[in-house]
Amino acid sequence: MAEKTVLDIMVLAGGISHERDVSLRSGRRVVDGLNSLGHRVSLRDPDAALLGYLVENRPDVIWPALHGASGEDGALRALLEQAGIPFVGSRTDAAQLAWSKPTAKTIVARAGVATPASVALPKETFRELGASSVLATVLAGLGTSLVVKPAKGGSAQGVSIVESAEELPHAMVDAYTYSDVALIERKIEGIEVSVAVIDLGDGPEALPAVEIEPVNGVYSFDARYNAGETRFYVPARLDPEVSARVAETATTAHAALGLRHLSRIDLIVDAEGVPWFLEANVLPGLTETSIMPQAIAASGRDLGDVYAALAVAAMSDS
Asked: Is the pLDDT of residue 191 over 80?
């Protein structure tokens, strides 16, 4: 039997985004998985010395576990591409497309996937056109049952469920705390599911969908990362035909955005069994309560094996 190749892998975690703590938790879990297979793994928090360090101490591959803008908006990926260092995850252009939720919705809709009617509003719109008239126009067009979220960002930070006209102004303020553009979507009633997609070289594969049932009714930041705040069903409690449709929708969205190696596609399945695309995440959370590790386990795979296979795929794609 051929001797297994031992890789020198650097996991990047932490950063300066609102999701720093989640990133550190994800990074440590990746390190544990890779260490279990005997790879040489280091965990590094990006800082001003990182790029110089990489010039002198090039790893075989970088495993980014940076959530928020520092890891998902494409900037770090562009620098790694310039340096010629292989890394796990989507390339710069695809990451930029997915990072902007309105852009991602447009691209995925063009691929034939349903996505809720929405409008993206920069802060400046309210100064130019007046807050009352802008909000009245939104309510007339989309109704009063809405979801308001930052146009860029993750982990449900700044996301609000709106059920009346009176709640909308406060929801806009919350969204603008995290982004200069707010996305307002018509709320789709249904089952919230999240689908992890991996590609180890043979094309994107949807792992078993995870059904999300927050205890308090909203899948907030706390509900995502605090044990006991959310009930997860893996696989999701869907009819086989609907499950197949959900998987196809997830891989279609992944491919339409040009994503690579791994992603998480968030969907709502309505009463008719139609999956509605909400957003795509190029770097899913990998904490003990995150969707992707649960989906990997439900597929019968070992976490360490998958994380290592993604590192190998990154080297092959470089």
From this structure: yes
Domains of the chain listed by start with CATH number: 8-89 (3.40.50.20), 96-113+188-317 (3.30.470.20), 118-186 (3.30.1490.20)
Is the Cβ–Cβ distance between 59 and 42 less than 8 Å?
A: yes
CA 142/CA 123 separation, integer angstroms: 19
For residue 3, pLDDT over 50 is answered with no
Rounded to a whole number of angstroms, the distance between the first and last alpha carbons of the chain is 27
Model pLDDT for residues 242-298, shown as the tens digit of each residue = 999 999 999 999 999 999 999 999 999 999 999 999 999 999 999 888 999 999 999
Residues in the chain: 318
CA distances 178 to 71, 105, 148, 172, 287, Å, are: 16, 19, 12, 10, 22
Place of tokens 């439900």: 298
- Residue (of 284, 286, 266, 289) closest to 276 by Cα position: 266
Contact by Cβ (8 Å): 143, 165? no
Q: At what angle do helices 101-110 and 92-99 cross, to 10 degrees?
A: 100
- Can you tell me the distance from the alpha carbon of 52 to that of 63, in angstroms, rounded to the nearest whole number? 18
3-state percent helix, strand, coil for the chain, nearest multiple of 5? 40, 20, 35
pLDDT in tens, 156-170: 788 999 999 999 999
The structure's pTM equals: 0.92
pLDDT band, residue 1 (cuts 50/70/90): very low
Q: List the one residue out of 256, 205, 318, 220 whose CA is nearest residue 98.
A: 256
State both tokens at 204.
């994107």
Query: Which of 264, 274, 318 lies closest to 295 in space, CA to CA?
Result: 264
